[in-house]
């Protein structure tokens, strides 16, 4: 600001003060006439704000915050060292190495922060899988400041949940998991967590929507909220006004990297089932039917004489699977499972996954316009089950890009409408808040090239991604029959 402009600003401010003094004197004179027995004017007051109906969260937060924790992880990541920018063996290269040393790539420790909460007085802590995945060391900081080493009891990448255990030497304050099915759009919610390392941060908002599918995994059923959550809130609790946990804050939609009022939380009813399995088995046991399905469109419903465009259309039946043994055929539409209405293929996947392996179920099926019932005994879903044979691109402790890959077989070619000669790696899952998610990569994309290297299968794609995982990454993908390139950004921070 110039001196001239400063003088003008001061003059204007002084004029404003003078005007205020003049008006004050006038008011006092008028007041003197109106209130002859008072030497000073009455104090200015504002009408009381009616706070009826406005929620206050302080009492709730005071009750629940002792069970909210900060999670710190240490990962071993690749360090490229001080690399020479000159052609190896050149004079410039030799001069560079004499000055800076011949440092070779190695390993270094990288620290990351997240949130979590205690669900059992014995020291069990819930957080997101992506908070602790690939961590060489996990530590939990309690609300009273104590920092304790944590053991990973189990992880479930399909729902992005993990269960930790700490030994505190005494029972810990813990939280109850509420009934997320009762949460309605418009209900108030409170989030407590550790955004950007600012532990104990409290934010509030409402449930914006239910049942959101954001492409993070096969069982997406997120609560959408507008309570501000940011990096570091992952794994923290989302509370209803009764103080029970109705969700685990997991992801945000953000063009800028910060909160824009669109956050996503895993519903507590899903958390309850996953945590129970992780606590008992160290893994989640899910049912497996063996049918690849697709959405029933209004056009298909009309052509197949289905009353409404609901259900899961069977596109492929895995040989020697529960579906095959039950007599399920391509073209059947599954409309119910044990009396539970099946709205679409994702609803079917979640419902089947929630049934214990070995359980006999009744499938409501529409076949050739006629309603039928079939009995199937579900098997156990494993990583080797057809449709789940995934190769991770996040192995070896290097910086993850956040995708899980599946091979292309004949069933996958048919499902994705690929030519019979198509090769590559199908993106089966995209981890929330990952580099791949930031680049817009979706489940169903087919990776055919990494950098300048063609890839024919998940193993080749995973190896090529790991070799180039420390910087920007160019992927050529096929999406809905179109080939395009996607730039995966360098990880920030």
TrEMBL record:
Residues 283-344, 390-481 form the PDZ domain. The active site is at 130 (charge relay system), 160 (charge relay system), 234 (charge relay system). Keywords: Hydrolase, Periplasm, Protease, Repeat, Serine protease, Signal, Stress response. Pfam families: PDZ_2, PDZ_6, Trypsin_2. It is found in: Periplasm. Its EC number is 3.4.21.107. Gene3D superfamilies: 2.30.42.10, 2.40.10.120. One of its GO terms (biological process) is proteolysis. The keyword Repeat applies. It catalyses: Acts on substrates that are at least partially unfolded. The cleavage site P1 residue is normally between a pair of hydrophobic residues, such as Val-|-Val. Belongs to the peptidase S1C family. This is Probable periplasmic serine endoprotease DegP-like. It comes from Neoroseomonas marina.
């Amino acid at each position: 600001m110039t001196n001239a402009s400063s003088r003008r600003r001061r003059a204007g401010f002084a004029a404003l003060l003078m005007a205020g003094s003049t008006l004050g004197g006038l008011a006092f004179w008028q007041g003197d006439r109106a209130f002859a027995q008072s030497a000073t004017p009455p104090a200015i007051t504002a009408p009381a704000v009616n706070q009826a109906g406005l929620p206050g969260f302080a009492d709730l937060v005071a009750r629940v915050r002792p069970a909210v924790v900060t999670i710190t992880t240490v990962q071993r990541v690749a360090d490229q060292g001080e690399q020479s920018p000159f052609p190896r063996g050149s004079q410039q290269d030799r001069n560079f190495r004499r000055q800076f040393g011949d440092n070779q790539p190695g390993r270094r420790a990288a620290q990351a922060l997240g949130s979590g909460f205690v669900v059992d007085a014995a020291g069990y802590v819930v957080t997101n899988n992506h908070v602790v995945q690939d961590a060489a060391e996990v530590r939990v900081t309690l609300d009273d400041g104590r920092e304790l080493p944590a053991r990973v009891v189990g992880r479930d990448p399909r729902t992005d949940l993990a269960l930790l255990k700490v030994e505190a030497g005494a029972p810990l304050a813990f939280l109850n998991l509420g009934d997320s099915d009762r949460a309605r759009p418009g209900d108030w919610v409170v989030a407590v967590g550790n955004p950007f390392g600012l532990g104990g941060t409290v934010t509030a908002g409402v449930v914006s929507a239910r049942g959101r599918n954001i492409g993070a995994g096969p069982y997406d059923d997120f609560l959408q909220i507008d309570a501000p959550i940011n990096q570091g809130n992952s794994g923290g609790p989302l509370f209803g006004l009764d103080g029970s946990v109705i969700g685990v804050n997991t992801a945000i939609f953000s063009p800028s990297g910060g909160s824009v009022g669109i956050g996503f939380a895993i519903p507590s009813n899903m958390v309850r089932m996953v945590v129970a399995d992780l606590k008992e088995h160290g893994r989640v046991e899910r049912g497996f039917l063996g049918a690849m399905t697709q959405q029933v469109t209004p056009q298909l419903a009309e052509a197949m004489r289905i009353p409404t465009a609901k259900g899961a259309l069977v596109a492929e039946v895995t040989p020697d699977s529960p579906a095959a043994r039950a007599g399920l055929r391509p073209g059947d539409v599954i409309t119910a499972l044990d009396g539970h209405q099946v709205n679409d293929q994702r609803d079917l996947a979640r419902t089947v996954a929630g049934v214990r392996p070995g359980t006999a179920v009744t499938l409501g099926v529409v076949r050739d316009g006629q309603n039928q019932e079939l009995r199937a005994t579900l098997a156990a879903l494993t990583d080797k089950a057809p449709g789940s044979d995934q190769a991770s691109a996040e192995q070896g402790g290097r910086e993850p890009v956040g995708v899980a890959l599946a091979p292309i077989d004949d069933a996958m070619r048919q499902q994705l409408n690929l030519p019979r000669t198509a090769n590559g790696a199908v993106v089966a899952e995209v981890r929330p808040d990952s580099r791949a998610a930031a680049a817009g990569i979706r489940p169903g994309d087919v990776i055919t090239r990494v950098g300048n290297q063609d890839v024919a299968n998940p193993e080749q794609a995973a190896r090529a991604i790991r070799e180039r995982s420390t910087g920007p990454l160019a992927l050529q993908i096929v999406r809905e029959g179109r080939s395009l390139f996607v730039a995966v950004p360098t990880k920030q921070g």
